[in-house]
Amino acid sequence: MNDCMxxxxxGQLGKALTLSFRGQNVATYDRYxxxxxxxxxxxxxxxxxxxxxxxxxxxxxxxxxxxxxxDQAYAVNASGAENVSIGAAETGxxxxxxxxxxxxxxxxxxxxxxxxxxxxxxxxxxSKLSGERLCRAVVSDTWVVRTSSLYxxxxxxxxxxxLAAVKDGRHLRYVDDQFxxxxxxxxxxxxxxxxxxxxxxxxxxxxxEGSASWYEWAVEVLSxxxxxxxxxxxxxxTSFQRPAAVPPNGVLMNNAAAKLGVELDGWKAALAxxxxxx
Length: 278
Prior knowledge:
Blueprint: E1 4-7, H1 12-20, E2 26-29, H2 39-49, E3 53-56, H3 63-68, H4 70-91, E4 94-100, H5 123-138, E5 142-147, E6 150-151, H6 158-168, E7 172-175, E8 179-180, E9 183-184, H7 185-198, E10 203-205, E11 212-213, H8 214-224, E12 232-235, E13 249-250, H9 255-259, H10 267-277
Parallel strand pairs: 1-2, 1-3, 3-4, 4-5, 5-10, 6-9, 7-12, 8-13
Antiparallel strand pairs: 8-11
């Protein structure tokens, strides 16, 4: 029996989780090794591993791509998540599903708690919420972990894209009226490993504490990197036409996890540690 099975190990969070579980008996599958849309393959892989815990970090996360291809978004984020839960139920494995702040519509003026009503405004959020519900219906021992705005030293993400644009000398414009909690995947992965040790199965919010607009995030990245870059402007979200609607407020309050002693650092402090690790 494996201690843990990480599905989606090739992604930002999957890589960080793999490092967090280093030294334990862990089975990892990236999307090329296991397509969660294939129910038979998923169940066979889970039977083979027979893990105590499954962490499903596999998802279609490109918000605009989900809007353009809802069938694919639901196949991965909803039906795919259900496939993993069915395999977990067969082996008696406990399940951790990674979800998103996009299950909320962003109309609230303060951070979202776990008990707040969900109302996703785009296909990505709708498909992820469907995945949450399908998993809970199949596996009672399910931890749903909602997070936001992930970044790391690998894969495509906001921080690396910003730094590449600066290197190219491009004029940058970032919105200043949409907010979230920028979250370093290393902090999140540690938080998840701590959470499953102390918390009963339920829905939890885990992100680096605090709130930032995309513009504020960009400014802080440049400040942390000690880069003086004058070609950076704050603009309203109406300046961009996107296929998918984006909630203006995507900030999560880590209320339930904090009561159990699991808290993540403030986003600025986490970013400073990330920059120091580069």
